[in-house]
Amino acid sequence: MTTHQDSDVTALLIAWSNGSGEALDRLLPLVYDECRRLAAHQLRREHPEHTLDPTALVHELYLKLVDQRRASWENRAQFFGVVAQMMRRILVDYARARRAEKRGGGSVMVSLDRIAETSHDSRIADVLAIDEALETLAAHDAEQVRIIELRFFAGLSVEETARVLERSPRTIKREWRLAKAWLYRELS
Amino acid sequence: MTPMDELDRSGGASAVNGMSEDPELWAHVKSVFLDALDLPEHERAAFVARTCAADPRLKQEVESLLRSDEVAGGFCEIPAASLLATDADSTDIASPQLEPGAQLGPYEILEFVAAGGMGEVYRARHTVLSREVAIKIVGRHIADDPARRRLLREARHAATLAHPNICTIYEVGDSGTGPFVVMQYIAGRPLGALVRERRPAVQDALSYGVQIADALGHAHRHGIVHRDLKASNVVVTDDGRAIVLDFGLAKRVETDTAESRDTTLTAPDTLAGTLSYMAPEVLLGRPADVRSDVWSLGVVLYELVTGALPFRGQTQYETSSAILGDSPRPMSGRIPLLLRLVIERCLMKDPDRRYQSADDAKAMLEAIRRRRAWPLVGPLLVSARRRTVYVLSSGAVGIAAVAYAGPRLYRRFAQASAIHVSTLAVLPLENATGRSDADYYADGMTGDFIAQLGTVGDVRIISKLSAARAARSETTIQGIAKKLGADVLIQGSLRRATDRVAVDLRLVQPATGAVLWSDHYERPAGDVLALEADVVRTLAAVIRLNIRPESREQLATVRAVSPEVYEEYLKGRYEWNSRTSSSLQRAIDHFARAIALDPSYAPAHAALADCFNQLGTVMVGSGSPTEFRPRAAAEAIKALQLDPRSAEAHAALGYARHYDWQWAEAEKEFRRAVELNPSYALVRIWYANLLMSRRRMGEAMRQVMIARDLDPFSLIVNTNVAWVLDFAGRPAEAVEQLTRTLELDSEYVQARWRLADALLETKHFDEAIAQGQRALVESHRSAPALAHLAGLYANAGAEGKAESLFRELRARTRTEYVSPAAIGGVFLSLGARDSAVYWLEKAFSERSNVIAYLVVNPGFAALHDDPRYHAMAVKAGLQ
Description:
The structure holds 2 protein chains of 2 kinds. In chain A, helix 5 packs antiparallel against helix 6. Chain A has helices at about 10-15, 20-45, 55-65, 75-100, 120-140, 140-155, 160-165, 170-185. Chain A has one domain. Chain A is about 70% helix and about 0% strand. Chain B is α+β, with helices and mostly antiparallel strands. Chain B has a 6-stranded antiparallel β-sheet, with helices on one face. In chain B, strands 10, 11, 12, 13, 14 and 15 form a 6-stranded mixed β-sheet that branches. In chain B, helix 23 (about 565-580) packs parallel to helix 25 and helix 37 packs antiparallel against helix 38 (about 835-845). Chains A and B meet through helix 2, helix 3, helix 4, helix 5 and helix 6 of A and helix 1, helix 2, helix 4, helix 5 and strand 2 of B.
């Protein structure tokens, strides 16, 4: 395969699809930077009128970085797979940083309103705990980890997840239930 | 539901470790778990036990995961970014801005209480008045001045509300930290927390419901819509007062913050808590009005009585589509039917079909609370059936998808509401033959349609008499439908030649007058039943009834019946409806002729059983029950041999068994009849009678209420509602109910008799006697009427008049059958206890209907210390 001199994400993506490991190495930082920028932007909610739907973030990223006239749907699926892992890293980093900022944390709020029933600290703890549990899960079922990354961290739907993993939506739906059941038990 | 909610409540699940060291075990666990998921829930346990029989570790793992799966539904469904972003948005809220001791105008902050989507809440004290208050700092995110002013104006408007169930707003101000609202400090617990902890008793739920509805009604009259009523917005004090918070605040704040409704829909934090309470029209982006609050009230009520939300999904998307498209999850049968009906009415998708004001809902709740809701049952005919289920293409996550899918969803919703049928009325078929002697034929066929539709599906069919009455008294179809609470009417006409029958039918939607469907059927007269089956099948398809499988079979195998037989049958039923002893005799003649022509025609046997049952009663009867009841039972059994699925035959047999004191058997028959045709009002009435005999007054009341739902203008049904009331020790209410019944038909003697009795119970002697006198005239001085009035005189102390009537009655015994129970009743009223017992024992030996009510009839109270009375009660299996 040809080695790509440029930083064209599309070309790198296609090259990687065709088996070029070097293309992936070059692709990752390009995508990562953009991914983090977008994520941070949205996490700060500088534009509250924008939807917070994380699926949109992934799509937006794809639209921005990849020339769709050249890329195939397999390229797209692979791209999403990569982005899902990145999102996990970015979000977990973010959560850790937030936790570090907090002084005491851990206080449980009296609630007058259901929204407030989930304290923000525990949401952070939640995300971090899921991330840790995934380390355990990775040891015996990498596929499950990927599903959780795509669904929970990248916010993809069951159908999109199925497309990325090249499985049927029905399979993904069942596997997702197993993944949730396992995680839920692990975190309880 | 957020993941943390799930987590917080998940203490029970156990984590089994060590799987990671054993990939083989995991593969095995995974495969069994996934296979189990494919099975219906109730089969999973057995499957796992079977599959893992040899491996306890595997079994334990799979079971623990399945348990976890049951509760993990909404877990992880909110993507990580949304969780964290919500955090980013509200971190400032979480850390309180004001420290204890801080001053806010004249208020001193005492402590931070809570943070919600709208802002922080503090407990504070007015330093001068030393009054304790709650202060809410709201809308801090609102940057622009007009929005801020609007918020303040709204809040000030809400501050004009003064009501015991509304949290009083004392003051609205604007400080450097944002607009703040000073309000009543309420020591109590949020209703949401209360419900999650322990479901309140029905009486408490009703009490809270009435108070909340009252608060809403008050606010609505002042032009204030709450817009965000939910369980956590209601605080219950220690003394049981329910107080609604945040009037005129919540949604206004959110809309202004987000600047447009669309963004309100897409921001997860604004919806997370309130989506479950949101009315469909609000979800679709239309403005909230009074009726949207009525919806939310329905959700809160549902939550109060069931402990759960009526519309639930694993994701917000699913919840939204449930709200837009599904019926509320069915409520337990333990919740009073009327209360369920009220809740279902609040939760109608179409705002026009809900209560149009909170006051209406309150009136109903109040009536149920005071247990006197029957006059209002009629207009309440609504039901929630899972008939229209929307399958949405999934593929998008979160509420944004709903906002996007809005118009499409709405169209479906609108279309569906056009043909959603919960209550159907068949108006009397018009006799287009031009000869009045075919009236009975039209009438009978109408009855047959009703009976058949009642057995095939899950829809409420208004009874023939009620439909006919409404059709007579109302001139427009809208009027008729309104009176009957029907959402669809069937109209039609019938022509009959010697050997052919033709029927034209149309299905009309009263609200618009639109004809939803129409068709013409013509068949040889001998195939009239097949014609009926055709019609029922088509109608079922048109109104989307789910035909029960066994009914489908029955409809497909309808047998031919000769026109003569069918004609005799219809004539007989026509006579039976009047239910006097002479009309019953004529009915018997018709049925007997039908049977002579076709001995295997089951409906005629069942109808004959009904006649014999009525002829054995005290008030209508013309002979001893020993003469008629065995024949009733025999005919019913014959009918069942011919057609084991005849609801009429089961009901008739139940009736005969009831008065033969075969309690369990009677109940079994009634229940089977109800199962076969849930819309058959008469069986409910008869079943209620049995329940009364057994002193199961609550259940009896429930059955007559259902009968009344089905047949709101039926004289016998309305009279029996009163009967149950009277025997339940509520004669004053019985008087009210009977007065109303007689307004339907002033010549219905049964109602007048019972009215006289109820008046006597309430010590209105003169009025009781006046009614008794009128009943005597209207019944053409029948023996039972003589006995009845004599008893009234005796009870009122007019013994001379009583005895004179009594002599007339005794003289009758020489020429006609007089029920010994009637004679015993007069003796009892006259205080002649031994003679009374003598005649009652005679009534006992002929198994008079009266004996079945020995222990519940207040008329027998004078005998309660008599051992002979007790002996009878014991022998009849009543004690």
